[in-house]
Specification:
Chain A is an alpha+beta fold and about 475 residues long. Chain A has eleven helices and eleven strands. In chain A, a hairpin with a 2-residue loop joins strand 8 and strand 9. Classes of the chains: A alpha+beta (about 475), B alpha/beta (about 220).
Chain lengths: ~475, ~220
């Protein structure tokens, strides 16, 4: 299987990230004008419609002013009646407005609604009126000479409209908040997109990470579903490829292990079969009448045969162990329970050999990370050693003790000690196997031995 | 009625020696040199002794076939293959696994246990101390008075478990988990209480038990 080194640009994470960065760069020059535009559009359509709905009219200052001056111009040389008529029309059009006109002599002629202006205008009144209107923010007034020129001597006409009827042209607070909301929305959209982009990446990375941790049935991580063909997609493909490779090598290893085990099994068989035949003849011989010398030789032969039997066992185990083909599956478990079960199995033999067991394994479970079979093997070898070399002590003790603050398992005997020359002494293979097995389980064995006995301490190397 | 044993072994020397020894001990032995015809022959037997390395079909295959045909029939594997894997594979269907070389007394002892456990001895009761145990009828009586001793369900299960492993020391965990069928976390007290009541019923002197022996620091044992 071959892989692309790099994903296609279009599908790569890089391109998608660039899009987001580009969006971020365009944020100021594009998004801000867009938000202005949006707020303006919303203002002109939604808000104006709303105002019109409320008042029935919209008045624009410039439009009104123009209209008023046009009307004044049209009224040049018109009769007072015509002027009245025109003003009434205006009043009709803008019912909320007040209109009036004053003739050249200063007399107020038509006033709608009536009574608000002086009947006879002095020059003081005129100035007063102009002043009042300039300072007045609530009322917008347009004043025009009739005929729209001062020289026509026809007087002037005025229209007043309350400020509230005008379209608001300047930016109001509501406009500002609208703009801010638009900006905020756009920013949220941008932030959301970035978040989604990174969340997608993060999720796929986490999936990959958890896939590496969670082993499937065969103890290897499970293959994962490959998503998009971007960088992570390639990583996922490579991951699956790696799993395949691991599986292959695991299968090869298992095959090798199987072959090796079969070889060992066959060797064991081939060595033991003649041994069994010899044993059977020794047994038959024992039933024959023999001299004391003959019986002694027979007993010795039987003893040596049993040694040989153990030796074969040890040799084969040692071979498996040193070649790393002895499968050790550690899991945390109570070793005291294993010790008790092992001791229970050995108990009858101990009694037969005249060893009195002293077992003090009550109390809290001692949880170590061990392989049960391997740990049993360790105990078997140690117990066997005691039976064969320390039987004379007549004692075997199983205990736990605190050693530098951590619990340790103690096996004691009262034999002649390890230095003593024992008749059953072999090449020390049994002890080597113990050491190897314990090392595999991160346990250590310490031996303190003197002429009065031996103490063996098993404890975790890194508690 | 004599116990019939089917013995499958390809090695002539070992085969003739073992069959002779077993015949001397009073068993009827049918010795086959390969797995051929083993399934048929096994039908009339009380026990099968099986070697692993055989010409043709290997012992594991033969054993599985025999077991499938007669699930109640005890099988003892007698093999020169001593690795733990072989033992585990064998014990998947076999009732016991003995490695060569072996002492004929050990073989005989194991045969006795298997035959007794399978109930092939007929109604022959087992005598332990002052007790007479009828395993098949789940009955227990006193040898002296002949009266039945009534045990509660759990007491009986504990006692029978120890009887099935006669002469073997069993740990408290093993007994508890076999009888209660649940993990031994703090079953210590429960088991102790049951053993105490059990002893009150079966022991002549519960303060100095003779039948169920306490093995200090490990568990209990019923001696043969």
């Amino acid at each position: 299987m071959r892989f692309q080194r790099f994903p296609k640009f279009r599908s790569s994470l890089l391109s998608r990230y660039l899009i987001i960065v580009l969006a971020a760069l365009l944020f100021v020059p594009v998004v801000i004008p867009i938000s202005f535009l949006t707020s303006w559009l919303v203002n002109n359509t939604v808000i104006n419609d709303k105002k019109q709905e409320e008042n029935g009219h919209i008045v624009q200052r410039s439009y009104l002013t123009d209209n008023w001056h046009t009307a004044a111009k049209q009224l040049a040389n018109a009769s007072p009646d015509q002027i009245d008529q025109k003003l009434r029309k205006f009043k009709q059009k803008y019912p909320f407005a007040s209109v009036f006109w004053v003739d050249h002599s200063g007399m107020t002629r038509l006033q709608l609604p009536p009574g608000r202006q002086p009947a006879k205008w002095s020059s003081d009144d005129a100035i007063q009126y102009m002043k009042a209107n300039t300072g007045n923010r609530d009322l917008f007034a347009v004043v025009a000479f009739i005929g729209d020129k001062p020289g026509m001597k026809q007087g002037f006409m005025a229209i007043e409209i309350p400020e509230e009827y005008f379209v608001q042209n300047q930016i109001t607070t509501s406009n500002i908040s609208l703009f801010a909301i638009t900006l905020l929305l756009l920013f949220a959209f941008f932030a959301g997109m970035s978040y989604l982009f990174f969340r997608g990446i993060r999720r796929r990375l986490l999936t990959l990470e958890s896939a590496m941790h969670a082993p499937g049935e065969d103890g290897l991580p499970m293959k994962i579903h490959t998503g998009r063909a971007d960088e992570i997609g390639l990583l996922e493909q490579s991951f699956n490829y790696m799993i395949d490779q691991l599986g292959d090598s695991r299968r090869r290893e298992q095959e090798e292990e199987r072959l090796r085990k079969r070889l060992i099994s066959n060797m064991s068989h081939d060595l033991r079969t003649p041994l069994t035949v010899i044993g059977s003849h020794l047994y038959s011989l024992k039933k024959e009448p023999l001299t004391d010398q003959g019986k002694q030789s027979l007993a010795l032969m039987q003893d040596k045969m049993s040694d040989l039997d153990h030796l074969i066992d040890h040799l084969l185990s040692y071979n498996l162990l040193t070649s790393g083909k002895y499968a050790i599956h550690r899991k945390p478990q109570d070793v005291l329970r294993i010790v008790r079960e092992s001791a229970a199995a050995w108990y009858t033999l101990w009694e037969k050999e005249g060893l009195s067991p002293d077992i003090n394994l009550e109390g809290e479970p001692l949880i170590w990370n061990v392989d049960e079979q391997a740990f049993r093997r360790v105990l078997d070898n140690l117990f066997q050693n005691i039976v064969r070399h320390a039987g004379s002590g007549g004692y075997i003790g199983l205990d736990t003790e605190m050693h530098h603050g951590h619990p340790a398992l103690i096996i004691t005997d009262r034999g002649p000690g390890m230095q003593a020359d024992s008749s059953g002494k072999g090449a020390g293979l049994g002890l080597s196997i113990v050491q190897l097995l314990l090392k595999e389980m991160a346990l250590g064995l310490e031996i303190e031995s003197n002429g009065q006995g031996t103490l063996m301490r098993i404890r975790p190397l890194n508690p | 009625m004599a116990i019939h044993i089917l013995y499958i072994e390809d090695d002539t020397e070992i085969g003739s020696w073992v069959s002779k020894d077993l015949k001397d001990r009073g068993y009827e032995v049918l010795w086959l040199k390969s797995g051929e015809g083993a399934v048929e022959a096994a039908a009339d037997c009380h026990l099968v002794i099986l070697d692993v390395m055989l010409p043709g079909l290997d012992g594991f295959t033969v054993g599985q076939r025999v077991k499938r045909n007669s699930p109640e029939l005890p099988i003892l594997m007698l093999s020169a293959r001593s690795s733990i894997d072989d033992k585990l594979q064998g014990l998947q269907f076999a009732d016991d696994y003995l490695t060569k070389p072996f002492h004929p007394d050990e073989l005989a002892a194991r045969i006795e246990v298997l035959v007794r456990r399978s109930g092939s001895l007929g109604g022959k009761p087992l005598e332990i101390g002052h007790l007479r145990v009828f395993e098949r009828e789940n009955r227990l009586e006193s040898k002296e008075t002949g009266s039945e001793i009534i045990l509660t369900g759990k007491q009986f299960q504990i006692f029978m478990y120890l009887i099935r492993h006669l002469g073997q020391v069993m740990t408290k965990e093993q007994i508890y988990e076999a009888v209660w069928g649940e993990p031994y976390l703090d079953g210590d007290k429960t088991l102790m209480v049951h053993i105490r009541y059990l002893r009150e019923k079966i022991e002549l002197d519960p303060a100095a038990p003779q039948i169920i022996e306490t093995i200090r620091g490990i568990g209990y044992r019923v001696k043969a």
